[in-house]
Amino acid sequence: MARKNRSRGGSGFVRILGLLPFLPIAGRAPLYARLLLSLATDSRVPASRKALLLMAAAYVVSPFDLIPERLPVIGALDDVAVMLLAVDVFLEGLPEGLVQEKLVALGASPNELDADLRRVRRMIPRPIREAASRIPAAVDGVAAFVADRGLDRRLRELITDRPPIANSPTIANRSNIANRPMEERPA
What we know:
68% helix; mainly alpha; single chain; disordered N terminus; 0% strand
């Protein structure tokens, strides 16, 4: 009995063809990685933009995926899409002069970056790009909420007021502490 749906074998080929626009970007990945590192370590870049890259990196290394990794070729597509989207939104929110300055320092062409960003934007649907572009504002909102409530100060105090590790009981001396009278035990 012949299969009714023979397009299944061709769909993998179509998906691979869909990746072709990313080939030039893949060739410049080391350059773009250096650009992102340079921007992420620059104090002029808002923390919310840096947080966006961190969230995308966390998703990429996370064992949970929208598309399971066990599916050949397309299994990595969600990771690629999330990272490209995050990089696009990250760069969109930066002053043009800052990105240009970093590109010149790396000896890269701003025209290539612009062309690559146009390719990425064509591949990712507009509603998804628009939703992702709201993430930095949401991160800023959460940061403002935390600061308004004094939670950032409390967390810093909690971290800095911890006793040094050298003074904390170790497994070896816990039995000694347990055998001491209550009034001699550390607080």
